[in-house]
């Protein structure tokens, strides 16, 4: 199971607590395939980093399941909104509020404050749109919830639309370590956790960091406060310095004094009545109560309080009396020691005042398999941007990877040692997982080459995958009975679906090829990649050939015979074939439009389907004429305007010979043809046929593919003139 734990603060550490960053989350997501469970226990953090992590989760190609283990506050609640499902165990909390900022960049002028307000408005509106989309409420209603600093338990979040389920069978873990005192309406339970955190930075500066705006700080002058004297004789004011990193900004003192040139001093110099020797002192501001004088001095009482909070939460979870909690605290036991003393009875709880940072719960063997497989795929595709476990294996050769998979440690000897490593990995009695790893990597690279090909049949046919190899009925678009009036008695008349659905079946195809032992021992992944690339493109070309052989089957290349009509797809009786051949001209194409728009369903009283063509299918001989038809022109008169400029897409295939041309509807609305694969097996796949021998590795490339005609109503053919 893929699982990612987002515990601690979002973006960075504020009080030496654990944290996670957007870069960590993006790197970890790249190592996953399939659904991922995201477990959150975070008091919040940097707002913009919360947005970045939310976006990374939304961009993940598979399902995201969010579980709020303890708390998802502030930016962490936004991250939770990325889940396809959001589950809140009993006792968990979600907090939604407005981003805040006590600092502005610059000198604090009106323009600086207005700019800061505009930035906060943009950030708040971006958050509100995400909350509103999740809860299906207006954006302004989401803004009101944010302004109120709203705390929700599982049932309340579910009712409000911010969660999809509330799990009463699982209890929440202890809330993540965080200074919840920076929030205006934090409940007492959270304030207890806040009291256990050593405050290493003033509240105002932390709030500035949470809003994503670095505060400007200055250096406090040393010694006696400076007297106000004439400008020419006064010492220069200390230079204003800006913290270069977020850590500097947090550690800066809140009562920094910024001394600027005083315009009154200049006036005093020119005024003879002014006593320039006056010694009017400036009082130094008092330091904030929460200022830390020495960051390197550990706050032992605060650490003790943090441990006590963990013990209290553990005892509450396990229904232990307060006397037991006091006893454990007085003995100085940690949560882990208490749990061990009780025989490890609490299997679920993970109480840690410093909560773990983002990490993956993954078996070491699975990590190695994923890393080696990813490295082989990256080297085959010549990918230089490699992240996750694969990065650690990029420098290894194939024999070295094979030896590592077989449990061998140490360097592989060149020559005979490399051959031996390959033979051991692929031998008939081998227990190594390298053959499976290598086969998976080859399949991924084969799939990449196959997907890069663009056979034209995919543009003109509907894709329908099948669950097995039995003949599958495909209903036509005209099979659904038309609606009938409902009488005063409320009776709804029955209708029947046509029983002449077209039948299509999958067929299996395959071909063997070999990878020589020289390629393996020589680590010649370039040669192996050329084999895979040519076969991937060849499979796509083979599908194209099969499809057009079906489309052009039968007498006059008019297509296969349909069960519904007993006639070929293109014929004069159904008006799917022009009565007289004509070149590609506006008038000839207009007749095709007219014929297709007059198509009806199966019943004689069915309404018109009003089908309009969107594809002009031609061969090489008519490609230029087709492109001329849809080319934009500057018409001097209305009668000369080209109506087909944006109405038709030209698709050309070398399998269409002669002057014939076709009009086809969009396959998503009125398909004439279909193609498909065995469900879960799109495109070609590789399978190892034999163990390693003198002839190398034997592989089969296999494909399960189907194509056929399903209806005539979305098509029209002209033999061409």
What features would you describe in this structure?
- The protein has 721 residues and is α/β, with parallel strands linked by helices.
- 34% of the residues lie in helices and 16% in strands.
- It has four domains: 2-195, 2-enoyl-CoA Hydratase, Chain A, domain 1, CATH 3.90.226.10; 300-343, no CATH class; 364-455, no CATH class; 502-718, no CATH class.
- The protein is built from 22 helices and 21 strands.
- The strands form five sheets. Strands 1, 4, 5, 6, 7, 8, 9 and 10 form an eight-stranded mixed beta sheet that branches. Strands 11, 14, 18, 19 and 20 form a five-stranded mixed beta sheet that branches.
- Residues 196-201, 213-299 and 348-362 have low confidence and may be disordered.
- InterPro entries: ClpP (IPR001907), ClpP/crotonase-like_dom_sf (IPR029045), ClpP/TepA (IPR023562).
- Residues 250-301 have a biased composition (Acidic residues).
- One of its GO terms (molecular function) is ATPase binding.
- Residues 212-301 are annotated as: Disordered.
The low-confidence parts are 196-201, 213-299, 348-362
Q: Measured on Cα atoms, how large is the radius of gyration? A: 36 Å
Largest sheet: 8 strands, mixed
Number of domains: 4
**Outline:** globular
Distance between the termini: 62 Å
Derived from helix and strand composition plus strand pairing, the structural class reads alpha/beta
Report the sheet-strand fraction. Answer: 15-25%
What do the pLDDT scores average to?
A: 76
| Count of DSSP strands | 21
Task: Please specify the SSE layout and strand pairing.
Layout: E1 2-7, E2 9-10, E3 19-20, H1 22-29, E4 36-42, H2 47-58, E5 64-73, H3 75-80, E6 85-90, E7 93-96, H4 110-135, H5 139-147, E8 150-152, H6 154-160, E9 165-171, H7 188-195, H8 203-210, H9 246-251, H10 263-270, H11 300-317, H12 322-331, H13 335-341, E10 359-360, H14 364-380, H15 398-405, H16 416-426, H17 434-452, H18 457-460, E11 462-463, E12 472-474, E13 502-504, E14 507-515, H19 517-521, H20 525-551, H21 586-597, E15 613-618, H22 623-630, E16 649-652, E17 661-665, E18 673-677, E19 685-693, E20 696-709, E21 715-718
